[in-house]
């Protein structure tokens, strides 16, 4: 029996002023982005740049207002822990291989990905693929739509398909604020 993959998509998550502030902030922070790392490090599983320390309180506050409604819609227990948020820049040939965010080493319950980028969009690809828990052949492919927020169960395996950014200019990257609501 096939089950439906559940994720929640919220269009226009930020108002235009907030979205533009975030984009400008990212451009100003370019020198503070570092190569993303997995534990253990493996360049064959992830390639992107990440900003861990940023002025995120306002963003986290907006996410907290979604905790109860999102958990209810996705039929999950409401996460009661902290929210971890980082900014990721994905440029030419960047990707993230399949993985779940909830493991024996993590306390992640609900994963989120907020998409934003410069207009007009200067990259292609970078789709998020979310796999069904019990059937890797059933999946959803989600395009990185500007100013949209995706939320899903952290147990789902997921990946980011390769990004193509011909200019290789940082400002043309596929940007996300991504992270987790901890249980």
Detail the topology: elements first, then pairings.
Layout: E1 7-11, H1 16-28, E2 34-35, E3 46-47, E4 49-51, H2 57-64, H3 67-73, E5 83-90, E6 95-99, E7 108-116, E8 124-125, E9 128-131, E10 139-142, E11 148-153, E12 158-160, E13 163-164, E14 174-182
Antiparallel strand pairs: 1-11, 2-4, 3-6, 4-5, 5-14, 6-12, 7-11, 7-14, 8-13, 9-10, 9-12
Structure description:
The protein contains three helices and 14 strands. The protein is α+β, with helices and mostly antiparallel strands and 183 residues long. It has one domain (7-182): Jelly Rolls. The protein has a seven-stranded antiparallel sheet with strand order 1-11-7-14-5-4-2. The chain starts with 6 loop residues before the first strand and ends with a strand. The mean pLDDT is 94.
């Amino acid at each position: 029996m096939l089950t439906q993959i559940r994720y929640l998509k919220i269009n226009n998550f930020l108002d235009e002023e907030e979205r533009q502030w975030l984009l400008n902030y990212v451009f100003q922070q370019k020198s503070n982005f570092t190569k993303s790392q997995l534990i253990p490090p493996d360049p064959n599983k992830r390639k992107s740049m990440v900003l861990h320390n940023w002025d995120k309180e306002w963003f986290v506050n907006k996410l907290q207002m979604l905790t109860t409604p999102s958990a209810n819609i996705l039929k999950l227990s409401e996460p009661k822990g902290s929210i971890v948020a980082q900014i990721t820049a994905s440029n030419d040939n960047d990707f993230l291989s399949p993985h779940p965010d909830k493991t024996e080493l993590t306390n992640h319950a609900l994963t989120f990905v907020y998409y934003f980028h410069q207009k007009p969009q200067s990259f292609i690809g970078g789709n998020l693929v979310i796999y069904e828990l019990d059937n890797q052949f059933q999946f959803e492919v989600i395009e990185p739509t500007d100013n949209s927020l995706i939320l899903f169960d952290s147990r789902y395996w997921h990946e980011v398909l390769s990004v193509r950014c011909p200019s290789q200019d940082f400002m043309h990257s596929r940007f996300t604020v991504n992270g987790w609501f901890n249980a």
